[in-house]
Amino acid sequence: MAISDPNTGRKYDLRNSKDQGEVKRLIRRDCPTVLVVSPPCTAFSIANQGEVDKRVLAGAIEMIRFSIEICELQHRSGRHFIFEQPQSSRAWSLGEVIKLTYRDGVTKTTFHQCMYGLEARSHEGTAPAYKPTSVLTNHPALAEVLQERCDGSHRHTQLIGKSACTKAAQYPVGLCNAVMKGVQVIRKRLEEIASVRDKVHGVHLCESVGVGSFTDPAFTDGGPDICPEDVLYEIEMEDMCEQDPSTWEDLATQRWQEYSQFSNETVDSTTGEILDPAKVKAGCDEELGFMSHMHVWDKVTREQGQSDPDGKIVATRCGRGKKGDKVRCRLVAQEFAGS
After folding, report:
1. Cβ distance 194 to 234 under 8 Å?
2. What is the pLDDT of residues 263-294, one digit of tens each?
3. Quick one: which of 21, 81, 208, 234 has the most CB atoms within 10 Å?
4. Is residue 167 a part of any domain in this protein?
5. What's the burial of 131, exposed, middle or buried (CB within 10 Å: 0-12/13-18/19+)?
């Protein structure tokens, strides 16, 4: 089963590990805001009452496994996905799909495509096609636009035969518009967070030369309704200039020291509030101690990292914020695809 890239014309067999690796490379390079994944469902259809060829089933399962893998890649990278299958698909009972269903931040919704303009033709003419469909997604804006249920105001045409099912596999315009509506909500939110983040960085710069503060009207007036946690998360996840540390552990230590020495004071990454140095040190020690205990990294040379075909050299960033009477410190690696 080969799928053609509409831009380059290159064909990808997504059951092939080499082509899968190339697709993952493209995702890491392009960083899509939302990835829509809809693997073929023929082998999992309840319409298949007979035994499915073992090779066909194995290929279909591999497609599902890879689909879940790239959804996980999006999720770990702080971006978003839609995983779609017919509501009755047997793929929903596969272990990989069940695991993603119960992951924190992932929501499952069901909708009827007749409400999004899906139609089919029968001997009685053209009419809406019911086609119950379920999706997994990790953003509420996407879940919200993908939950329309049939209102009973029309009759349905059944999808009978290979030709009808093949045509119904193409998303109707209404469904595409709904997905884009959700994407626009996400992008608007990201733009608002980016605006606040720029103000945070600007005030930090002004404070470093003795001008301005986080209480200035320029920062507090007229801004969007943004949760400080959102800003902190986005600041942590943003791209950093590539460093040349001798080891990952050295880089981690370097980052903590850089942020702890800002203006001879330690401040909250979001609000600019001065933090208790002892609590910051305790938070840093707790974070690095946990990572050491979990064996998060191995020491390697830059040459070893660059020669790893599946690897990628990434930067890190730390953030600090008050959590009750403690200071929470987090060290974040951008697009770190851990297992």
Report:
1. yes
2. 456 777 666 677 888 888 888 888 888 777 77
3. 81
4. yes
5. buried
- pLDDT (tens digit per residue) in 7-54: 788 888 888 889 999 999 999 999 999 999 999 887 888 766 677 888
* Number of Cβ atoms within 10 Å of the Cβ of 211: 10
What is the Cα–Cα distance from 36 to 21, expressed in whole angstroms? Answer: 18
Coil, strand or helix at 136: strand
CA dist 47 and 277 (Å) reads 64
Number of domains in the chain: 2
Is residue 10 situated within a structural domain?
Answer: no
pLDDT over 90 at 144, yes or no: yes
Residue type, 318: C
Q: What is the pTM of this model?
A: 0.62
Cα 49 from Cα 56, distance rounded (Å): 15
* C-alpha–C-alpha distance, residues 147 and 112, integer Å: 8
129 occurs within a structural domain: yes
Q: Dihedral, CA atoms, 190, 113, 6, 182, nearest 10 degrees?
A: -10
Q: State the virtual CA torsion across 113, 114, 117, 122 in degrees, nearest 10.
A: 120
Q: Give residue-wise pLDDT tens across range 69-122.
A: 999 999 988 899 999 999 989 999 999 999 999 998 899 999 999 999 998 888
Domain that holds residue 158: 31-186
